[in-house]
């Protein structure tokens, strides 16, 4: 390929069954001049009808080109104006042609120029009305060219008194067709070729166009130099004119430059080895990859072996064996170049004789050192993350053991479940606490340290152990949160942006009473008499955010038949859904679980709950008073 551009060849359209032969062509005067328009219809409609039809088509083309509109729009307006003025459409078309027949006349028309203004300028006295004529086929030709890429045009032929081709006039054009002055597409319609390319009329190409019109046989011309580039031109007869297309040819002088640019972009070079003649060729960038002076020629076998890394010998041997089996070789090996190791990917194949013996070897060598270094760095990062993940998981299992089943505490039964995030996520800082106190009450807690990984797990351990120690001094949930907040604020001095949430509850089995407080944590859920509701949260900011923060207590009754659910935000929060949606889902799950197993709801409940956020750990604690 080597950077060579491949372009579509726009061939000329061959006449179909509806088109006439060259013998039926004849000239019809237009605008009173010496030139005539070549007809070329399959069925002879008579001189008057033929002349009128061509005049209408010519007027439509001129109007569309000047007003920069589609041919169908110009034709419809021409018919409408003829009907409104009660004049013959062919006569009106003749007036338009006479007004716009020459480039000078077109230039003299005042701006702005619209189809109505152009037609109005051509009207004088209107003769008797006639019925509108048939739709012009030029609209169909223009519609086809509108959808074609590249440069293609349809040109009507003007002939002299001797019947020879005198000029070509643009009647339809593709959007990419352009003239030296910048006119494009339908802007060309109605303009003569002699205005822009007078040298063509006097050259050999003109005789080819004449032959195509006379014989109906398409012709290919080229290469032809136009606007600094070489083009192949194809011309074919279509009705009364020519369909001409241009295809730009690749510039052979720029091919080496393109190939070299592609080699540098892909950091690759290529080479060939003719085994018959012994000739070896390396592209310029292959020398750059091996950092070798081109004057020394390609590397020899001994030189190649000298720079190869010895540990890659099995790879090279396997590649050679595959080559002997007539397979394409694709292998990455290492070489020592300029005092450093390079990773080179080699793709090689061969042209072989009928017995499979190689006659010519050709291949591509790409320097993939940077890609390999990046892959090695990613692998190292992955190993580091995996080690950190394993360390955090072990740490979490040590400091946060999860009981396999429900545990019995004074006056209540508690069940805990831990839902870790997906395997690709780091361990989080979710934790729980459930233990009896010396006065016979029970202390429950659930918390969440922001972040993931070893640091979050370490902070979680500090909070859990601090709560256990502080519970010896006080069992008031609000006071315990105040102490934990001071601890988090001190830790935040060493670790900025450290924060956590928690909810703590103390259950008094004798009074059937639950005192609780929270620090920026989702509200606990209480299921009573078959209905689950979130508890109204007392005041309390997140831990580690406000120095000397105060946390209020709330008191509720907690009686047999009730179910209390403490949880971390991973159970209800999801980045694609609102908190209310997640909370409603959990409430419905609690209701269903209690109804399904009213005597033993804890196991049923924990078996049904699922985390809402797969990227976050979730810790759930469910409690139920015992009768």
TrEMBL record:
GO molecular-function terms, A-Z: phosphatase activity; RNA binding
Spans annotated as Disordered: 17-49
SMART domains named in the record: ANTAR, PP2C_SIG
PAC domain segment(s): 325-380
Record Pfam families: ANTAR, SpoIIE
Key words of the record: Hydrolase
Residues covered by the PPM-type phosphatase domain: 413-624
ANTAR domain mapped to chain residues: 36-97
Protein name: ANTAR domain-containing protein
Organism: Actinoplanes italicus
Lineage of the organism: Bacteria, Bacillati, Actinomycetota, Actinomycetes, Micromonosporales
């Amino acid at each position: 390929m080597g950077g060579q551009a491949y372009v579509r060849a726009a061939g000329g359209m061959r006449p179909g069954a509806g088109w006439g032969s060259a013998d039926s062509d004849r000239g019809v005067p237009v605008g009173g001049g010496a030139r005539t328009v070549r007809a070329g219809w399959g069925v002879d409609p008579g001189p008057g009808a033929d002349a009128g039809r061509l005049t209408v088509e010519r007027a439509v083309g001129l109007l569309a080109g000047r007003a920069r509109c589609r041919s169908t729009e110009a034709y419809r307006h021409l018919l409408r104006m003829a009907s409104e003025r009660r004049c013959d459409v062919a006569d009106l078309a003749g007036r338009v042609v006479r007004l716009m027949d020459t480039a000078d006349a077109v230039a003299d028309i005042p701006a702005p120029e619209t189809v109505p203004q152009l037609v109005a300028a051509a009207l004088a006295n209107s003769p008797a009305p006639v019925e509108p004529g048939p739709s012009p086929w030029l609209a169909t030709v223009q519609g086809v060219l509108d959808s074609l890429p590249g440069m293609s045009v349809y040109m009507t032929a003007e002939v002299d008194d001797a019947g020879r081709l005198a000029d070509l006039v643009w009647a339809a054009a593709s959007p990419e067709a352009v003239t030296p002055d910048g006119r494009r597409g339908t802007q060309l319609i109605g303009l003569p070729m002699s205005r822009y390319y007078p040298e063509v009329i006097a050259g050999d190409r003109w005789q080819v166009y004449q032959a195509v019109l006379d014989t109906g046989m398409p012709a290919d011309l080229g290469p032809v130099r136009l606007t600094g580039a070489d083009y192949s031109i194809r011309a074919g007869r279509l009705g009364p004119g020519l369909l001409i297309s241009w295809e730009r040819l690749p510039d052979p002088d720029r091919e080496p430059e393109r190939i070299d640019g592609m080699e540098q972009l892909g950091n690759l070079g290529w080479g060939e080895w003719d085994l018959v003649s012994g000739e070896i060729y390396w592209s310029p960038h292959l020398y750059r990859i091996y950092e070798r002076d081109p004057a020394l020629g390609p590397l020899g076998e001994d030189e190649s072996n000298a720079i190869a890394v010895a540990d890659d010998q099995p790879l090279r041997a396997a590649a050679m064996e595959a080559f002997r089996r007539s397979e394409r070789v694709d292998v990455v090996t290492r070489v020592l170049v300029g005092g450093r190791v390079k990773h080179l990917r080699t793709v090689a194949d061969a042209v072989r004789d009928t017995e499979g013996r190689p006659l010519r070897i050709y291949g591509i060598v790409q320097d993939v050192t940077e890609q390999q270094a990046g892959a090695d760095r990613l692998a190292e990062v992955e190993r580091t993350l995996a080690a950190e993940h394993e360390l955090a998981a072990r740490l979490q299992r040590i400091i946060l053991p999860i009981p396999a089943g429900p545990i019995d505490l004074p006056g209540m039964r508690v069940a805990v479940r831990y839902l870790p995030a997906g395997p690709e996520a780091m361990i989080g800082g979710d934790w729980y606490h459930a233990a009896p106190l010396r006065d016979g009450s029970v202390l429950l807690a659930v918390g969440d340290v922001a972040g993931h990984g070893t640091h979050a797990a370490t902070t979680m351990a500090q909070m859990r152990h601090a709560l256990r120690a502080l519970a010896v001094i006080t069992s008031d949930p609000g006071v315990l949160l105040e102490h934990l907040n001071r601890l988090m604020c001190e830790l935040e001095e060493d670790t900025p942006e450290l924060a956590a949430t928690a909810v703590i509850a103390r259950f008094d089995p004798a009074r059937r009473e639950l005192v609780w407080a929270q620090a920026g944590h989702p509200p606990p859920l209480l299921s009573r008499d078959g209905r689950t509701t979130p508890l109204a949260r007392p005041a309390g900011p997140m831990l580690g955010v406000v120095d000397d923060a105060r946390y209020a207590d709330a008191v509720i009754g907690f009686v047999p038949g009730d179910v209390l659910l403490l949880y971390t935000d991973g159970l209800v929060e999801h980045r694609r859904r609102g908190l209310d949606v997640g909370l409603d889902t959990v409430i419905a799950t609690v209701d269903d679980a209690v109804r399904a197993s009213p005597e033993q709801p804890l196991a049923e409940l924990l078996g049904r709950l699922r985390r809402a956020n797969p990227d976050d750990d979730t810790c759930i604690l469910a409690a139920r008073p015992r009768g």
